[in-house]
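Quick note —
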Amino acid sequence: MPKYQELNEKALAASAAMVGFVAWIIAVIWHGAMMQPSMMGWMYPGFSYMNPMNALTLLVVFVAGFCIIGWLVAAFYNWNLKRK
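Predicted structure written out below.
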């Protein structure tokens, strides 16, 4: 039995997507509801986290981005295990 086991890419991608969803909720509450400053607000003065279109776009970006990062981390980890 190998010392380390491979990671399941789909499972890590799904769990990372859930983390992205939680991060989106925190961002909308912190920057939108509590009106705390953000880099998006400084770069684009008209940007608001409370605008439904902006919030949905950020939701898609956060979930898809975290999902892709989770899959890439698992794929790289498994590739590195097979290399040895």
